[in-house]
Write the structure tokens for this entry.
Amino acid sequence: MMTEPRQLFSLEGRVALVTGGSRGIGQMIAAGFVAQGARVYIAARNAQACFDAAAALGPAAFALPADLGAIKGCEQLAGDLREREARLDILVNNAGAAWGAPFADFPESGWDKVMNLNLKSPFFLTQKLAPLLKAAARPERPAKVINIGSVDGLRLSDWETYSYQASKAALHYLTRVVGAQLVLDHIHVNAIAPGAFPSKLNQAARDDAETMSASIPAKRLGEADDMAAAAIYLAARSGDYLVGHTLVVDGGVTSARHPGGHRTKRPGRCGADRRAAVGQCGRGRRLRDSRPRGATRRRAAQSAVGHQPPWHRAWPAWPRDPNSDRQRCDLACGA
Ligand SMILES: NC(=O)c1ccc[n+]([C@@H]2O[C@H](COP(=O)([O-])OP(=O)(O)OC[C@H]3O[C@@H](n4cnc5c(N)ncnc54)[C@H](OP(=O)(O)O)[C@@H]3O)[C@@H](O)[C@H]2O)c1
């Protein structure tokens, strides 16, 4: 018999831990889980921010400050949770950071910091929490691990964020490797690859929504509802048949953007909107591609940031000034 649709998305009675839940995407997910009935623990380095975020979510949310940049922090967090809970139904490995610098002087510190937090810590936190996840897991109600990857791990980004992109691609793969192992214990591991969501980490989206939206097929940035809905889907009964999967939530950037650049109007048969745009009749004539051509296109490309055609501008190239350390950090570092 089919489960009642509302129950498919319920998290009533479940215990969840969201790393990096004090702001941004983690906070969106934590809020969604609380709304669906879960008891949610939030972990981040800034203790006050953790407590404030938990207080804002109400009595079903709790702060567990931890620095997950090293295994020690993962062990401490797992221990803190063990003191409070006998089982864990949902682990969301969300805490992440980015680092951008030109290839020639990309620093080891920017490599290690990002790889440790984005890739090593999801593995070891999952390992340390596996006993609690096993305690919750049943064949008819698997426990869940959700790794927050990125579209930057699925397709090339214009930013020189080498370790970030590599860490996210590896996290998607790790989701499959660990997923294949933990499914034996009825723990289902999946990932979400977000597109552009405004946050401290994605300051380009936060500070210039209009420009960035223009390059997204859905014509807008990701919103809290989009992220909460995807995470709830994976965490609840609704997502029980997904294992090792990466769910892309990006408004079409990865799958529905033309490789030659994003088009607002594709050449094709006349439609009412296209006729309005180009002033043509409705007799089904072929329309012209409205993107700039020839000399206009070359001029636009030369003046565009990073010598890219204007329809790529929303993801600007990394600033090339090697002395611009502050700029680098402002633009790319999550912390
Ligand atoms: N926003 C986007 O457009 C986007 C797109 C694709 C993927 N993502 C991914 O989504 C995740 C969240 O990103 P976001 O945009 O929400 O970033 P954010 O706003 O910078 O939030 C990052 C969260 O992680 C915590 N954190 C950072 N370093 C930590 C550490 N060493 N130990 C424990 N917690 C730590 C931060 O709190 P503290 O600073 O207090 O520790 C904060 O709660 C990341 O994995 C990111 O790669 C984001």
